[in-house]
Amino acid sequence: MARVLRKVIAAPSEVHRLRQYPSASPRLALLSGMTPTCSAWLLRWLLRLIGGVELCAIPFVFFPFAGMNTVHEQWLGLGELPNAPIVVYMARSLSALYAVHGALVVRLSWDVVRFRPLIVFLGWLHVILGLVVLTIDVSVGWALWWIVAEGPGIALGGGLIVFLAHQLADDPPA
Length: 174
What we know:
- The chain is mostly helical.
- It has one domain (33-166).
- 76% of the residues lie in helices and 0% in strands.
- The protein has 9 helices and no strands.
- It has helices at residues 2-9, 12-19, 26-32, 36-55, 58-62, 65-75, 85-109, 116-140, 144-166.
- The radius of gyration is 19 Å and the shape is elongated.
């Protein structure tokens, strides 16, 4: 049964390599109840989810300003979007940056064992980014639902990335 699950959960090319990386800590593996193979599968799909959501920013690189204003004013209730070159530039370039980041995250999901050190680094960057975004959201006075969802969500996602990546490691988590 376990052998069948391993074949279903892990890509065939990763099953052999995952055997080379025992769980980072037997205690953590016991507490989490996850094998390295299960962690690899979850990590792959978490990275694909994060990257896929960020790739949804591609259309907004080309979105008409009137549409951006409608989203800003009516959907988010943030008032009229200033029609200044810097605002349009920032909205479009940030959308492009999200798309590039999303493409990179999806690419990392193709081989989580090979890219594990970079994935751990990415996870810690997300934890830090989440805390920075939380600070920014509070300082500008965003709505409570936004403050609770954005920064903490990014930080929790980063923490989950680090945790799952460390389940593949042969060294204990830092």
